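The records we work with from here on pair a chain with its fold. These numbers are not coordinates but entries in a learned vocabulary of local backbone shapes. To see the layout at work, look at the sequence and tokens printed below.

. . .
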Amino acid sequence: MRRTPPLIVGGGPAGTAAAITLARAGVAATVLERTTQAHDPVCGGFMGWDAIGALRSIGVDPLRLGARPITHVRVVAGKRQVEAPLPHPAAGLSRRTLDVALLAEADRLGVDVRRGVNVRRAEAGEVHLADGTVLTPESLFLATGKHELRGVARGSGKRARVGLRAAIPAQPDLAGWIELHLLDGGYAGLLVQDDGQANLCLSISSARLAAADGSPDRLIEMLGEEAPLLAARMSTTATSWSAIAAVPYGWRTREAVPGRFRIGDQAAVIASLAGDGIAIALTSGIAAASAWIEGGPDAAPAFQRRFARRSAWPIGAAETLRHASERPALAGPLLSLVGTMPGSLGVAARLTRIGV
């Protein structure tokens, strides 16, 4: 039986990794991407060693794209901080640069990449576009990231958080570091990316943002006493803020539907504190495409079950760390433990990796 080309909704790391893997096996695929030009989504920026390995396996080297090496981690809670080397080198790379490179590689391999295409819903084997077009693919790869698609919504879960991002001037002591700030009801991560700016990602409870009247700048002001170093880093006005709500950390799909491959954040959502979201996106896209190459549309349920098992440990470990880091009563003892056992940071980093 002749298989029709897979349809991939979403041109981020998960969708393009799947498309590139398919193309390398001689399989035509179509990628529908709603944006028309390069941009920086809320999440991303940190490339762990597993993400770097996954990128290289599909022909993209982040260091050649200008990624900034990261060799150490600094964890800050209030006025206390601990530092440790990472188990393996990581890197800081903007999503803008990464997404452009992945889409360019897909295009070079002959993938049909269509930008500026809005998908309204997917149901009963049909994919409905905003212009009225209806597609009927045998295989649908859902790679919409944290954005939901009507008809196949993932669900927000009970542990949803608000994600915020800003680009700020990088201070010299951030070079080579990933810096994590533990907050009451959230945390923030800072790193230097390829463009020389510091990428700030902040995960916070909706209640804390609401207390700041929904203003990220006001929130940073309110965090001044709780997180003085973070406030000092943010002393210059952020160029702009990006936001996304209802991020369901800890969620994994239990879906097993023939012909439907959930990848990236549509398969599993790891707490951004772990910094492994890009690796999960890439590895799930590669694994889903490899499953399709072997078994076609019917391979989707087995792939989904395998990836749910594969992601269970790192996501569970990340959730344990997240729950501890967001509670001041636990964050203090956590830093004391790390202070006496610096190697525990490396252990935590290893436990939250999806692997290549």
Summary: The chain has a mean pLDDT of 91. Residues 300-325 form the longest helix (26 residues). The domain at 7-40+92-157+249-318 is CATH 3.50.50.60 (FAD/NAD(P)-binding domain).
